[in-house]
Amino acid sequence: MSFRDWLDSVSQDIRYALRGLRREPAFTGFAIVTLALGIGANAAMFGVVDRLLLRGPDHVVDADRMVRFTATVTRPSIGDVTYASLGYVVYDNLKKSGSRLFDGYAAYTSEGQFSLGRGREARQIRGGAASAGFFPLLGVHAARGRFFLPDEDGTSNPAHVVVLGDALWRSQYGADPGIIGKTVTINDEVHTVIGIAPPGFTGVQLSRVDAWIPMSLGSRTVSTNWPRTWSAQWLYVVGRVKPGVTLRAASEEATRIHRLAYDGPPTRLIAKGRFNATPIRFTMEGTESTEVSVSKWLIGVTLIVLIIACSNVANLLLARAIRRQGEVAVRMALGAGRRRLVRLFVTESLVISALGGMAALVVAGIISVLVRNALLTNIEWTSSPVSGRVLAVAFAVTFLVGNLLGLAPAAYTTRVSLQSAMQRGRAQGRRWRAGSWPTVVQATLTACLLIGAGLFVQSLHRARTLPLGFESDRILVAAPDWAALGPEATPAERTAARARRAEATRRALVRLQQLPGVERAAIAVGSPFGNGFGLDLYVPGFDSIPKLPGGGPYISAVTADYFAAVGTKLLRGRTFTATEGAGTAPVTIVNATMAKTLWPNDDALTKCMRINADTMPCASIVGVVEDAHRWGLKEEPAMQYYIPFGQEAGIGGSVFMIRTRGTPQSLSAAAIRAVEGTDAMIARAIAWPIREKIDPLLRPWKLGATVFTLGGVLALLVAALGLYSVMSYSVAQRSHEMGVRIALGARARTIVGMILRQGVAMASLGVAGGIVIAMLAGERLRSLLFDTSPRDVTIIGSATLILLASAVAASVWPALRAGRVDPILALRAD
C-alpha cells in the first residue's frame, strides 16, 4: 500500500470515528470530559513539579552543577547545629583556594525588603545583594546594560549601583530603556541603575527579586569588621562543581579548604566545622523543601486520577465494542483483516483521546492558575500556565492514552469467531463481566486518594490551630534599620552610638504605644520567627546543660510588656517590671521546658543561672512562661529564657512586637512612620504581620490538602460514573434474567437489593484494597504529615463511608430499573 493509499484509509477511519461519536453524544461527552480531567490534572501538576524540581531557576546554566554550602558545628550545650549563612571570610577563602573540583564560587544575601523612593511615597520591594562573580558563575547575562564589576563590590568602598529586575523595570518605569545611567533611591541611598536583569531571573532561588545591589552594600547591619571576622555570618555561599563531581566529594573538599585557611582562635567551634554541599533546589538549611517532597506525591495523585479516567473510558469502549460485534462480523465476512480492524478501533480511541486532550488544556490552565495563585504565591512563575513543556507532556500523554485505550476493545472483538459473532442472540445474551475488575481497581485507587486527602486536610487543620505560645493573628513586628558607622569610627564613638541606639529604641517604643489601634507594644532582642541567639550558660549543680532535640538554651531580651503584648502565658511567678533593665540586679524568666528539664522535681523560681560566663552575677529566676515556637511549626521542645531589655550582652538586633486592636496590616504604615521619625540614626524601618512568617510554613499542607482533595473528588466522581455505567450495562444485558425472576415470583425489592449488593460488593473490594495500600504507603507519607497518624482510624473510616455511599448512589438507578423490568417484554425480546 502506498503512503497516499494509507493516508486515505486513515482519513476514512477518522471520518467514520467522528460519525460514530456524533451518533452517541452521551458516550462521547462522558469520555471526553473524563479524559480531559485525567490528562489536564497531570499536565498541570507536571508544570508545578517542572518549576520546583526539574527545570531549576531561570537563566541558570547547568543548574544541576550548582551547589549551596552550609556549615555544621557541634555546640556543647546544643549538639549539631547547621548554619545556612556563612561569613565573608569563609567565602573569600573558598574563592582564593583554586580548588580542582570547583569552577568558582559566589555569595549573596537572602532576599528581603528594600524601600524604593523616599518618604511616604516609598514602596516596599524585594531585593537581594550579590557578589560581582554571582552572575557570571550562574551563566546569566543582563537583558540591558550590565551586572556588577569586581571593583564595584569592594569590601571597603562599594559602588552605589543597582540592577533592576525585569518586572520592576516594566511596572515602575514603563520598560524605559533610558533608565540605564539614571539614579534611584534604594534604602534611602542614591544608586545608579547599571542594568536590567533578564525576565524571570531570581538568582538561585525561585522567589521574585526586584533589585540587586552589590554584596558589600548588603552589610550595613553587620559588624563593621565583617570582612575579617569569623563571627559575622550573613552570606549564603554557592559554588559550581566541575562535571562528574559528587556532592560528597564537594563537601569534603570545602571542609578541607576551610580548615586549611582558618586562622582564628582554635577554641572557636567553627574551627572544626564541616561543610555540606547540597543542590540549590534544597532549602537554605540544606534539606529538601517540604513543598518539593509533597509535589512528588502529587504527581502520583494525578497519575491515579489518569488511571481511573482511562479505566472508565476503556470500560465504555469495551462495552461499545461488544455491541458492535455484529458490525465486526460483517466487516470480517467482507474481507477486512484483523490488522485493519485493530487500526479502526485504535483510530477511534485516538480521536476520543485527541478531543479529550484539547479539553485537557483548559483544565490544565485552570488547575495551574489555582495552584499558583492560591498555594505557591512565593514562587516567581515566568511561563504561562500551559507552557511549551506542559503542551509536550499533554500531547505525549494523549497519544499514549489513545493507543492504549484502543487495544482492549480491538483485542476483544477481533478474537471472537465469525460464526459466533454472526449469532446475534447469542452475542447479546453473553454477560459482559470485563467491567467488574476495572471498577474494583478504580474503587481501590479512589480509596487511596480519599484517605490521603483526609490525612492532609487534618494535617492542615492541626497546623493552623497549633498553639504557638503566642497570639499570632494580632501581632505586628517593626524593625529599625540603623545607619552604619564607618570603619574610621573610634571605640568611643561606637560606645556613644550604642547608647544613642538604646535610647532611640525606647523613645520609638513610646511613640508606638501612643498610636491609635495599638493595644500594647514591647521591645525584643530575639523574637519568634525572627532572630535567635544563644550564650554560654552556667547553672549551679550542672557540669553541662542537658541537650534537647530542639536545641537551646536560647536567650531573648525583652521589655516588661513583652509577654502581655505577644500573648505568652505566665505559668508561675511574675514577669519583669518596668524598672528592671540596665544597671539593675540580673533576673530571668524561663520557659516550661527549661524549668522541667533542669529542675524536674523542684520549683525553678528563685533558682540561679549565670549568663555568658561562670564569673557573672547570679540571675535569679522570677517566672516561668509557656513554651513558644521559635522558627517553625514542627519543632522539638527547646529551652528558652528571657532577660530584661538592657541587660543583654553580645547579642543585638531589636524589634518591636506590637499587639493591635484591629488587623496588623492596617497599622504597618503608621508604625513605620513612628519608628523612622524617632531619630536620625534610623535610616528606615520595615513592618510586617508575624503571620507573614507563619503562613508560608502552611503551604506544603495546603498544597497536599488541595490537590489530594481535588484528586479524590475527581476520582470519586469518575469512579461513581464508571460504576453507574457498568451496572447499567449489566442490567441491560440481564433483562431476560430479571424478567424470568419476576415471572417466577421474585419481588421488585429483591431484584433491587441484588443489584445494589453487586455494586456495593465491587466498591467494598476496592475499599479493602485501598486500605491495604494506604497502610503500606502511610509510613513513607508520615514525614510530610503534621501531628497526624497515617493510620488514623477516623480518616480511614470516613473515606470508606464516602466511597460506599457513592457506590450505593451510583447503583440505585440501575437497580430500580432492574426492578421495573416487564417480564413479558423481556421474554419476548429474548
Largest sheet: 11 strands, mixed
Average pLDDT metric: 84
| Cα-based radius of gyration, to the nearest Å | 34 Å
Low-confidence stretches: 424-432
The count of strands amounts to 24
Query: Which strand-content bin applies to the residues?
Result: 15-25%
The class by helix and strand makeup works out as alpha+beta
Number of domain modules: 4
Search tags:
eleven-stranded mixed beta sheet; alpha+beta; 4 domains
List the helices and strands and how they pair.
Blueprint: H1 3-23, H2 25-54, E1 66-75, E2 79-83, E3 86-87, H3 88-97, E4 102-108, E5 112-116, E6 123-130, H4 134-138, E7 144-145, E8 161-164, H5 166-173, E9 183-186, E10 189-196, E11 211-214, E12 233-241, H6 247-261, E13 274-279, H7 290-323, H8 325-333, H9 338-375, H10 388-415, H11 418-422, H12 424-429, H13 436-464, E14 475-482, H14 491-513, E15 518-525, E16 537-538, E17 554-558, H15 562-566, E18 570-573, E19 587-591, H16 592-598, E20 608-611, E21 619-625, E22 640-644, E23 654-660, H17 668-676, E24 682-689, H18 691-694, H19 699-733, H20 735-743, H21 748-781, H22 793-819, H23 823-829
Parallel strand pairs: 6-11, 8-10, 17-22, 19-21
Antiparallel strand pairs: 1-2, 1-12, 1-13, 3-12, 4-12, 5-6, 7-10, 8-11, 9-10, 14-23, 14-24, 15-17, 15-23, 16-20, 18-21, 19-22, 20-21
Task: Describe the fold and architecture.
With 830 residues, the protein is an alpha+beta fold. The chain has four domains: 12-56 and 287-430, no CATH class; 66-279, no CATH class; 432-460 and 698-830, no CATH class; 475-697, no CATH class. Helix content is 48%, strand content 17%. It contains 23 helices and 24 strands. The strands form three sheets. Strands 14, 15, 16, 17, 18, 19, 20, 21, 22, 23 and 24 form an eleven-stranded mixed sheet that branches. Helix 3 packs across helix 6.
